[in-house]
Amino acid sequence: MSVQLEWVSHEGVIRHVSYFAGTSPSARPEVRCLCCEARVWLHLGEVLAPHAAHSAESLCALREGESIEHFNAKMALA
Length: 78
Hints:
By secondary structure, the chain is α+β, with helices and mostly antiparallel strands. It has helices spanning 61-64, 68-77, and strands at 7-10, 13-16, 31-32, 39-43, 51-53.
């Protein structure tokens, strides 16, 4: 299983995506990637762990450069 983006910015506050667990799809707020500041989408299903995802055309460094594992660890320590 691949590692997914776990941390997002919501109204200027850094939050773990599990903060939004239980939010219905129609009520999910707009959240942003902490790396590129682009909008990302919350995935809060029951099969995969809660995570956020960039759009397919995103050029975010987390998709190419710094690993998501490293980024998630930095955010957890902060």
